[in-house]
Amino acid sequence: MVRVDDRGHVRIVTFDRPEARNAFNVAMYRATAEALSSARDDSGVRAVVLTGTGTAFSAGQDLNEMKAFASGTAETDGASGFPVLLDLVQSFPKPLLAAVNGFAVGLGFTILAHCDLVVVADEARFKVPFTELGVPAEAGSTYLFPMRMGWQRAAEVLFTSEWLTAADVVASGLALEQCPVDQVLHRTVELAEHIASLSPDSVQAIKRLMVAAHVDHVVAARRREEAAFAELLPRLAGEAG
């Protein structure tokens, strides 16, 4: 479900569940969390790149599993999946980059707001379908999207569940640049390798100082989002039944 490859001091973590457009189920959450935890603790890794295989970066939460959680029929423990990965992503001390090779939906989109540098393929498309699904926003996006995009643009994105283009995401400040799909991973790794060639202590100190200004707000936003989800869960269960 997740492939891990090292290129010098850069670790590439690839979401590898193409039959589900790299949607996250609990097993994939755990595998990604394990990959990030290992990278965090490995002094030889100075930067991490997230990417996907096939036509998608990630389609977000596995909806079949989400329905099972809502109806109480899930065979796995959701608490060991999504929140564990988000805690790691949010607190990750090293540069975290994303090479968005294709569709980025739900968490596949909101996770980008936690990344330090994002490069997107020209053909990539982005969407947060929360209002279509009848669920609240997640991953701290109710704070991070307005902070990055501005209130008006974030409200449009979060309220309407409409698709965005690569150019939209670059213009909004959630991505650094766009490039052809066959170059997106190369370009992102190139950025990561340059960062990894510099003082890791300095780079990580700068990231820590940048994140410190917002971390409490992100944590509080996630708690509010989780409470809202718990409030809506009974309704989702009723619809699933």
Give the assembly state of these chains. Answer: single chain
Just name the CATH architecture.
Answer: Alpha-Beta Complex
Determine the strand fraction and express it as a percent band. Answer: 15-25%
User: What is the C-level CATH assignment?
Assistant: Alpha Beta
Radius of gyration: 17 Å
Which fold name is given in CATH as the topology? Answer: 2-enoyl-CoA Hydratase, Chain A, domain 1
Any idea how many domains?
1
N- to C-terminal distance? 30 Å
Morphology call: globular
Can you summarize the main beta sheet?
Answer: 6 strands, mixed
- The stretches of 5 or more residues where confidence is low (pLDDT under 50) are none
| Count of strand segments | 10
Q: Which structural class should the secondary elements be placed in?
A: alpha/beta
What this model shows, in words?
The protein has 241 residues and is an alpha/beta fold. It has a single domain (2-240), classed as Alpha-Beta Complex (2-enoyl-CoA Hydratase, Chain A, domain 1), CATH 3.90.226. Helix content is 50%, strand content 17%. The chain is built from eleven helices and ten strands. It has a six-stranded mixed beta sheet with strand order 1-2-3-5-7-10, with helices on both faces. A hairpin with a 2-residue loop joins strand 1 and strand 2 (10-15). The protein is globular. The model has no long low-confidence stretch (mean pLDDT 92).
